[in-house]
Amino acid sequence: MTELDGLYALWYREFKVFLREKSRIVSSLFTPLLWIVVFGGGLGSSVSLGGTNYQAFIFPGILTMTVLFSSIFFGLYIVWDKRIDFFKEVLVAPLSRLTIFAGKTLGGCTDALIQGSLMLAFGVILGVSYTVQMVVLSMIFMLVLASALVSIGLVIGSFMESPEGFNLIVSFLIFPLFFLSGALFPIDNLPSWLHAFTTLNPVTYAVDGLRGVILGISTFPVMIDLGVVAGFAAVMIGIGSIAFSRMK
Amino acid sequence: MADFSVAPEHTLGEPVIEVVGLAKKFGHLMAVDHISLSIREGEVFGLLGPNGAGKTTTLSMLATLIKPTEGTAKVNRHDIVKESDAVRRSIGIVFQDPSSDDILTGRENLYLHALMYGVESNVREERIRDVLRLVDLEDRANSQVKTYSGGMRRRLELARGLLHRPKILFLDEPTLGLDPQTREHIWEYIRRLVDRERVTVIITTHYMDEAEHLCDRVAIVDDGKIVALDTPDKLKQMIGGDIVRLKIVNPNLIPIKNLPYVVKVEQTGGYVLLTVKNSSAHLQEILSLVGNAESVELRTPTLNDVFLQYTGHEIREADAEGGFFERAARARSN
Known about the structure:
The complex is a heterodimer.
Chain A: H1 2-20, H2 22-44, E1 48-49, E2 52-53, H3 54-83, H4 86-91, H5 97-125, H6 132-159, H7 163-179, H8 192-200, H9 202-215, H10 222-246
Antiparallel strand pairs in A: 1-2
Chain B: E1 15-26, E2 29-40, E3 44-48, H1 55-62, E4 70-75, E5 78-79, H2 84-90, E6 91-94, H3 106-116, H4 121-134, H5 150-162, E7 168-172, H6 180-197, E8 200-205, H7 208-214, E9 217-222, E10 225-230, H8 232-237, E11 242-248, H9 254-257, E12 262-268, E13 271-276, H10 279-290, E14 293-299, H11 303-311, H12 315-321, H13 324-333
Parallel strand pairs in B: 3-8, 3-9, 6-7, 7-8
Antiparallel strand pairs in B: 1-2, 1-4, 4-5, 9-10, 11-13, 11-14, 12-13
């Protein structure tokens, strides 16, 4: 019971902080909107891919990007928490490390999912007509992806002592994950070296899956995409649990 | 080295903390060097020493935040190494640095703490109200912590430390960085907690006055070792007299040293420091023998004198070099 209460407390804290820091939400949506409106709109005025408007084509990719950035950068807050003694206060509580990790992950997933949902809603302006099934499936994709990426962010955060260090490591990770995911281009006719990278990148399957759900075009079957992302999440959550249980 | 593991008879209550040969090594640095002590229920116990003496490290080990290199301790009859969960449930801790969430209100901070420490849902609201009243924060409970003053934050953290009714409350430098008036208020609050909640309090401090005013017993810590341990009064009695400080050029010290009531004679930079029994009766004789003193100062000993006697240096000297953790932090950021 204590563990469940503790889990709720950790989640509640992240959620409250997220709601109070409105600037977090605004700034995290600003960049993706620029990509869609300016980049997508600009390039889309002369490019279309397989009968789909370019702006619409990258929309699932930018949706993934929103989740990617907010999830991984969630780990930054743990670095801040460590700088003040707040995190010590959590570590000294009679809670298992697994609970602490789970609470933080749930908090991060909630943040990411709220931001993802706001972006998803923006799709209506771009002319996407959603069905209930599309919304539910998109949410599942975003949640599973977020749980994997929040875990990565937390693991990096748990090892780093300074925000600068965190940013450095994360930028080496986050941009390759984004650019090699097919968020901005179709992955069917790539040169072989690029094809290899995109196939190995788990984020590719999230983009492909969301594109399949929202636009009905995908390279792999949607359920295969979901399976790969879920497998990725399982591995990352596992690594995160181990990292937290060993943390001092 | 003296064995301090046996508490004096006059302190009431059963031992709630028993430390045996506790040691912590960081690399080659012996931060805590095999200390043993015993703390009884209802005591306010002080670890007094300069930054870097090993006070916070000792506290962190007792709070199960770090593991000892050697030795162990029982906190509320639970072993800190083998039963860390049970220890954590018995203790409250207030850290040196602020540890409440700025962006949440005081009440929300307490609520989260209550959840994490397993305070039963039917008493949660009541406990939160109680501790808020105890530290006089009822009227500010619904403001975000970032609007609090330094003293209010400390009070909130004291309240939080007590929320789950711990048997033992650890306070790491409870008044660090606060102004004198606020510090006295905090001492009052701590006293109030001890009286009303019957907790045992262990504080670390490098403030002599804090140890003197707040603590029932004080352990003087230097270089990871306990060099003296007793009540503040008894520690001061160990000096063996009052302190007479003379400003004097070319003092005639030989007759002074032979006086039966002069316990100790020291000479430092134009000053002579004498430790004198029953000083008011003998001051006249001393002054007639020593020569022409420019000024005379007579005072009862402070814990600073005790510290000086046992360690050979003042607490402030070591202060300037910074604590162990500060040194470590600097090394890391370089």
